[in-house]
Amino acid sequence: MIVESRRVVVIGTGLIGTSVALALRGRGDEVWLADRDAASVRMAAELGAGVPLPENAGPADIAVLAVPPAAVAATLLDAQKRDLARVYTDVASVKSRPLREAAELGCDLTCFVAGHPLAGRERSGPAAARADLFLGRPWALCPTPETTGPALDAVTALAESCGAQTVVVGADEHDRAVALVSHGPHVAAAAVAARLEAAPEVALGLAGQGIRDVTRIAGSDPELWIGILSSNAAPVADVIDAVAADLADTAAALREGGETAVTELLKRGGAGRRRLPGKHGDRAGTYAVVPVLIPDRPGELALLFQAAGVAGVNIEDVTIEHSPGRPVGVVEVSVMPAAAQRLADELRARGWSVPG
Amino acid sequence: MIVESRRVVVIGTGLIGTSVALALRGRGDEVWLADRDAASVRMAAELGAGVPLPENAGPADIAVLAVPPAAVAATLLDAQKRDLARVYTDVASVKSRPLREAAELGCDLTCFVAGHPLAGRERSGPAAARADLFLGRPWALCPTPETTGPALDAVTALAESCGAQTVVVGADEHDRAVALVSHGPHVAAAAVAARLEAAPEVALGLAGQGIRDVTRIAGSDPELWIGILSSNAAPVADVIDAVAADLADTAAALREGGETAVTELLKRGGAGRRRLPGKHGDRAGTYAVVPVLIPDRPGELALLFQAAGVAGVNIEDVTIEHSPGRPVGVVEVSVMPAAAQRLADELRARGWSVPG
């Protein structure tokens, strides 16, 4: 849907709010920023996400409430009392309870479309924001019977402007769904990661990519997640109870030397995994990754970036797999696919080891 | 360690065996290939992994037994009866039981070094093999009291030729360690993925990166994994029992509306997660993070690393938060805590914006 340049208020300049703001600024929208934390607004503004919300500003086209689930209803009521915008949406990971609370507070639900972009990172705050955070990601919209068509159209257009794909779904159905594909797995990842708290050093030294992937989301902000899990308690409890039961049964089968139950779980896991649409979890799908082996010495990375500059390649992201004491590390450089070969050639020409 | 070109027999031309063969061929070793499945040997040979094991070949320098844990002892006995090599190693994910079985079968353990490269993929078979599979990965070696020094040296050199970092560890300690960082997490990933088997389409449509990461390893070959888990049953059962207990307690706390137990698990998960060495773990753990706002221009990053060099600061890890079209990016530089202030001062002195 093509829309004119909008005036958007983003309330809450954390990871999601600032990422929405950056995406909208990128297409020319005017963005006003607000947050309880003035320093957070300053950083978001410095990053190019918009300008601080002016005093006595007239109503914007849309207000995006990027606050925790428990704060959505009160923030909506306050914003509507101040007439901050004509249409309101939120981005909280839970929908039923905030909607119920908003109705109880007497918010105007005709111009409110509850929303939830299915994108996030294990890191929070405006500094972690990215304009491309929502590219190709699902963005759930949960209109109520009171919601007007124009309000739904406006929020749909905003989500699409961020590059997301909208999915209209009932609030209860949404909450059970995210318990299954997000909140439950998050608790499971934390439970696996919690085993590492008292792990011997040798075990940590033998950690491979598997445990890193399984526990990645366990690195997320606990304060944020306690709010999400508490707001969606029953559906999440159902999911993790079922996971716990499967694990206990499997442990018993292993102790008894019975392979059938273990094989069954592995096969069911494979079948469930295969139901996930799309590529199997390639977050950096938009970029090509060039791996390069580098000595663990100061200055080596500067040479790497110099080489990229010489090759005229803009580095989008870099991750370094390096363990203290190891003489070499594997650096994964994310670049636009068209530039991957050029970068690999330049690095090889400079004597770097570029596998594959 | 520098070694002359070797003659190596690889028994078992699956993912790991063929990857070892490709890595060794890449440095000029002569590699002989054997497998129960002649088609698998042919494919590995076509991929450049070596040549089929000749009839009545003289003993090779090393034989790599790339067979499932349950087959290691019998394969070792057979290989030693045929005098296939002077030194033997395996790559199975479990060490204690195969070693016990080898001793019971009367294998010669003086020239055997049990080994385990901590690398793998969801795909199996020779077609999935990669010469760089072991680059920068840990490779556990479990010599027994009988193992000779020269045998350990030879297998250490072989692992290093594949680009791996060797870790010498006792077999029992190894098995408890991999139950914690690999086998237990694998079962947990399968249990989470199993929830998706009966998930409604709308839930699958809302799946984001988190569930994909948590369940990635659940896509692995069940036949291979049932063998691994059965061979390491007790340590794995201990781990997944503990995970199941944490999940059941958390579910109960959620149903009772108590946040304390949930918060505790999330915090323990974060603490465990931060203990993982390398790119995922150290950011908030061992190292201090210095965030820097930098213009999105080629060459700026090189200047950043030059500044670190001038300040005498060794950069341990770096993450670049850059969005297409954004005027500035945020670079998070991980350094030893003692060096963080020095780096921040140097960067500010050079006109960089260092928040906080």
Provide a short characterization of the protein structure.
The structure is a homodimer of 356-residue chains. The first copy, chain A, has 356 residues and is an alpha/beta fold. In chain A, 45% of the residues lie in helices and 17% in strands.
Key descriptive features of the protein:
homodimer; alpha/beta; 8-stranded mixed β-sheet; 11 strands; 356 residues; Rossmann fold; Alpha-Beta Plaits
Structural summary, described in words:
The structure is a homodimer of 356-residue chains. By secondary structure, chain A is an alpha/beta fold. Chain A has 3 domains: 7-169, NAD(P)-binding Rossmann-like Domain (Rossmann fold, 3-Layer(aba) Sandwich), CATH 3.40.50; 175-275, 6-phosphogluconate dehydrogenase C-terminal fold (Orthogonal Bundle); 284-349, ACT domain (Alpha-Beta Plaits). Helix content of chain A is 45%, strand content 17%. The first copy, chain A, has 13 helices and 11 strands. Chain A has helices spanning 15-26, 38-46, 72-81, 96-104, 149-161, 171-194, 201-205, 209-215, 222-231, 233-255, 260-274, 300-310, 337-349; strands at 7-11, 30-34, 51-52, 60-65, 85-90, 112-117, 138-142, 165-168, 288-295, 317-321, 328-335. Chain A has an 8-stranded mixed β-sheet, with helices on both faces. The longest helix of chain A has 24 residues, at 171-194. Chains A and B meet through helix 6, helix 7, helix 8, helix 9 and helix 10 of A and helix 6, helix 7, helix 8, helix 9 and helix 10 of B. Chains A, B: Keywords: Amino-acid biosynthesis, Aromatic amino acid biosynthesis, Oxidoreductase.
